[in-house]
Amino acid sequence: MNLPSTKTKALFLDRDGVINVDKGYVYQFEQFEFVSGIFELLLRFQKADYLPVIVTNQSGIARGMYSISEFEHLMNQVQDVFTSKGITHVPVYYCPHHPDQVEGEFTLDCNCRKPKAGMFYDAVAALNIDVENSVMVGDSWRDITAAQLAGVSKNYFMRGKSIPENADITNVDIVEGLNEIQP
Q1: How far apart are CA 157 and CA 5, in angstroms?
Q2: Chain segment 20-59, per-residue pLDDT in tens
Q3: What is the band of 103 on the pLDDT scale with cuts at 50, 70, 90?
Q4: Distance CA 16, CA 95 (A)
Q5: What are the E-state strand segments in the chain?
Q6: Would you place residue 108 in the very low, low, confident or very high pLDDT band (cuts 50, 70, 90)?
Q7: CA gap 181, 183 in Å, rounded
Q8: 9-180 belongs to which homologous superfamily?
Q9: In the beta sheet, which residues pair with residue 55?
Q10: Residue 94 pLDDT
Q11: What is the CB-side half-sphere exposure of residue 119 using CA atoms within 13 A?
Q12: Hey, which residues are catalytic here?
């Protein structure tokens, strides 16, 4: 695969709580409710030459609640909605693992599960991303931690969940809604 000579800025996004309302282990389109402002956010960043990239923990796979194929089917349906709104293809990186499951092929203390940065490293390498000029939007501090580990320079934390007392809030803006986030 020949990568372009110039690197692409990315808009990294967590899924549950940023793209869709977090209802816990969503894997069917009927359960999927888009967060207000997500389409406008994606279009703003797309217009500013950012590539949207989803990075999401999906421990429901390890827990046996849904399969990889069910997750991927849902994300294909989500992409169809994005496309209908004028949003280009959004790559999806997901971690199906969880270290605390009793048994199963996805019971693993992996490098991709946030707060580790493996999904970011994979996306950066595969998509030729300029990580230092990229942005992360997350609703959990583990999203921010993973992005910081990967070298993402600008992070937005959706207010709602708590911030750890010793958290590094360098290059982090705390926002109420997606409309506050600009390229």
Answers
A1: 31
A2: 999 999 999 999 999 999 999 999 999 999 999 999 999 8
A3: low
A4: 13
A5: 9-13, 50-57, 92-95, 135-138, 154-158, 172-175
A6: confident
A7: 7
A8: HAD superfamily/HAD-like (3.40.50.1000)
A9: 93
A10: 96
A11: 28
A12: 14, 16
Assigned token pair, 40: 């406008």
* Interatomic CA distance for residues 114 and 95, integer angstroms: 8
Say what the pLDDT of residue 109 is: 74
149: tokens are 């580990």
The count of C-alpha atoms lying within 13 angstroms of the C-alpha of 116, restricted to the half-sphere facing its C-beta, is 13
Residue 136: what pLDDT? 98
Percent of the chain clearing pLDDT 70 (strictly above): 95
- Altogether, the residues listed in the chain come to a count of 183
Question: Position 169: which residue type?
Answer: I
Q: Taking the CB of residue 97, how many other CB atoms lie within 10 A of it? A: 22
CA distance linking residue 59 with residue 49, whole number of Å:
31
| Separation CA 23–CA 150 (nearest Å) | 28
